[in-house]
Design brief:
With about 160 residues, the protein is α+β, with helices and mostly antiparallel strands. It contains six helices and four strands; from the N terminus they run ααααβαββαβ. A four-stranded antiparallel β-sheet has the order 2-3-1-4. The longest helix has 13 residues. The protein is elongated, with a radius of gyration of 20 Å.
């Protein structure tokens, strides 16, 4: 398998039903105790702890976090920004990638196969703050040639919420 990327099926094939059950249970409730997790998946506590540690060590589970009510925190303005670069050589992409990670308002950044290069999900308090982030932060990122914005009016489905 040298030089190939494992398929999703191959990766899942490396995990047995208990590992998959641990991941599924924690994806629903990351605060679950190991005792509750063990009960849910049908193993005793010690083997569940061992499996959980292995899944974390092998990067199947990357971390745990709180899902917050962003509207209550005043962060319910979402805009999607298309970014076209003036240079798409590997060094330019690395420069852009490193710089965009430093903008806290950018919640997601995806390299896209399209007529533009990147799609950003930007979360701010309101359109005025978005305008500032776009004009002062995003537009000044390395190699940005142009941007285009789409403002979300309502979120219908968001698996992180």
């Amino acid at each position: 398998m040298t030089g190939t990327v494992p398929t999703q099926r191959a990766i899942v094939g490396e995990l047995d039903r208990f590992d998959q059950a641990i991941i599924a249970a924690l994806a629903q409730d990351g605060r679950m105790t190991v005792t509750d997790l063990a009960e849910r998946i049908g193993l005793s506590k010690t083997p569940t702890q061992v499996r959980l540690k292995r899944l974390i060590d092998q990067d199947y589970i990357l971390g745990f976090r709180a899902v917050t009510n962003l509207a209550k925190l005043g962060l319910d303005h979402v805009a999607f920004t298309e970014v076209k670069l003036s240079d798409t050589r590997e060094s330019a992409l690395r420069d852009f990638n490193a710089a965009v990670r430093k903008i806290p308002e950018v919640e997601e950044c995806h390299l896209i196969a399209s007529s533009f290069d990147y799609l950003l999900k930007v979360r701010t308090t309101d359109i005025r703050r978005y305008r500032y982030v776009l004009g002062e932060k995003i537009s000044s990122l390395p190699h940005v040639a142009s941007t285009s914005t789409f403002v979300a009016m309502e979120t219908i489905l968001d698996h992180d919420r």
